[in-house]
What does this fold into?
Amino acid sequence: MTAAGRRIPFSLRRGEAPAVYVLIAGFVGVVCLWPLARLLLEGVLPGGQVDLTPLRRVLDDPATWRAARNSLRAAACGTLLSVLIGASTALIVGLTDVRAKPVLVLCLILPLMIAPQVTALAWLQVLGPSSPLLQALGLAPPPGTRNPLYSEGGIILLFGIQHAPLVFLAIRAGLRRLPQDMVEAAHACGARRWQAVATVVLPLLAPALIAGVALAFVSAIGNFGIPALLGIPGRYTVLTTLIYQRLAGLGPSALAETASLSLVLGALAIAGLGIQGWINRGVDVRASAAMGPRPYPLGRCRLPVEILCWAIVFLVLVLPISALFATSITPTIGVRLSAATATLANYGFVLIDHAVTARAFRNSLLLAGGAATLLAIVAVPLAYFIVWRNARGLRLLAAAAECTYALPGVVLAIACILIFLNPLPLLGWSIYGTVWIILAAYLSRFLILALKPAIAGMQQSERAFEEAAVILGARMTTRLVTVVVPLVAPAAVAGGLLVFLTAFNELTVSALLWSTGAETLGVVVFSLEQSGESTYAAAVAVLTVLATIGLMLFASAFARRLPAGTLPWQA
Amino acid sequence: MSGRIGGAATALVLLSAMAVVSDAAWAQSGKITLYTSQPDKIAADTVAAFRAKHAGVEVDIFRSGTTEVMNKLQAEFTAGDPRADLLLIADAVSMEALKAAGRLLAVTDADVSAYPEAAYDRDRTYFGTKLITTGIMYNTAAKKPTSWKDLADPSAKGQIVMPSPLYSGAAAIHMGALTSDPTLGWDYYKALAQNGAVAVQGNGAVANAVRRGEKMYGVIVEFMAIDARAKGAPVDFVFPTEGVTAVTEPVAILKASKNPAAAKAFLAFLLSKEGQELAAKQGFLPAHKEVAPPAGFPKTADVKIMPMNIKAVLDQDAANKRRFNELFGG
It folds into this structure.
């Protein structure tokens, strides 16, 4: 750690900064700020006239504030739960000698791949009157009993489970940059293990933890699937569901009111960002030596700890996946599954008869892969400017990325239609109705997922390396490639992975932006679900999870060529 | 001589044939875009049947939920360049709003002779293509209901699931019709709330809850229930004695259409006897008087539809939703 909080003034060498800086600022401005600004315009300038009535109506409506309060409470409590699950598992995997770590890590990341609705549905079934588990135990509530998940508590529980992998991945990347020598120094000074963890490891992990918390919070604020499934029957409205209600309104004023409501949601997301910045202030955990601490042997406690970890995996992964799988081999919803009724016909249909599925797999793979790669690359210089160069302008721009992620997908999609329908300035052609508008929307929506881990990675990295490179006369691009990238590679890859997993089965944005030939997996599942073909939808979802596992294993095959510890599930 | 006459006749036939072909090509070529909330396969089959007759027309489909379709279209209006030629959505109320905004093309020459007057707009801007009625789906483990009021009976306590009118346009119309019925009204909705009725996001969620036996009774569009029964799920559907509410899945052509001729051909196909027979084959109640309903349905004329004033539903939408919100929370 260098002197705490001191920022070394660092003048940009003439001519070198603007090129990279302007490129990065331009990128964030176009993909994140532009859609937001266009939306804002719709809120206060509907039809080209300044008109504050929609905004005033929204602000005067008690429903707005009730929903805002619910959003805040559910997101805050859900985040707490995510941290409990995500941080404890990340610390166990990172600091102890539990066995089968790569598999465990994979299993703890994969819940991100499962659409929140699926997880919610699985839990509803597990706790409901028709639960096979409760029936076997003789604990099933009588039919007609209100499901306990239709409540604020249910939403919080599902938020906690759904977003735990975000915290897990952020801390996992942070642990990779933890200096072994400082932990050893603590032990040399006579510190016990818990003392070393409490006084050295946890403070050093602060930026990673904050990044994880911020991501979990903003994800919960912006989540629509879980409150739609649990909150509508639970009579618990949050901002995202309120916005959807306004959009479903039959009147013509929907767009202006939606835009105004989105402002409130954006304000909440940015408030979260402010608190995060306030906590982050004065935290300086830069360290030179990296490569994670040596694992503590758990001794006799190892088995119980392992059982705990796998119990968590069972709850967050095995349970929803098996419910999904069971649905996918049922001939039709409502028929009891047994050896006699089980069928693979649903897979046959989606793989052979339903041509769209294959096309959607290809599209989503390219879109999620493209967005993840691009954003992981952009995040490195962006984080570099924000953290090491303290570029305030870029920091403000990055706040826009917070909003595009928190807004309901349908609202961001509307903003994208508003700006991309007409031919692009200078270029003269329109990306509307092509796969490119979906890519643009994904870049806008998911930048924050790549950026947060990268920022945490930069905060943990020792800047002296770059100063040395400057003294040696290395230009900025050289320094970025040779110094910064190796330092933040694990964090950047963790961010890219978050983008990929989230974008691969994304629905709400592409539901408005897809077109013939540019279908996404989320749209296919949604269409099947809406047509009452839940069994086909489940088959596609199971195939999606299998494909993801396949891709992760495929990536492992190339792991040796990457900087050590880049892939989170590597030992 | 005869050869020459024969040659001339052949030429004449060829020429007139060419004239017919070119006339057809003039009317029915190029590309049209259809925005619809129909289920995927239904929309694709309909387009395929249309193209079997009009091979020259390419049809692009955008399919999504009614809310998403309307939002996309509204955003396109705002950006100043709507891309849809044709709109085929669940309910007439949204069409009425579009008509009021001057977005719809009047198709005065559409053939509506076989349609009841309630099925199409007086000014011929939108035309109902079928009847999608909302009744009661029940799990066969439960007692068969006959009336809407059976859902307010204590024996159904905690067993009712319905689509939320706050999230679904069709459900909002259902609410508008039921609450303006003198024998049901808002008292009925109050009784439902007291009986623990649960609102969910849409018809699909209602269907799954009843199929799985999580709830015994669901308020739902008929085709989903009848389809589930046909596939072997332990459910059935009843048309309640008071009548059902209905949406007409209207089709309309946008004024901004760049290919109105082809769009009109598509509209005419949907309204033709052949198009209506296809709808019946797909499991829908046709709006055409002479087309037989699909198996499992009563005759179109025998289905008792509760009266509804579209304009009134649109005007009272906000007030109705507020009352629903007070009763059911959310």
Observations:
- The two ends of chain A are 26 Å apart (CA to CA).
- Chain A touches chain B through 63 residues (CB under 8 Å).
- Chain A has 24 helices and no strands.
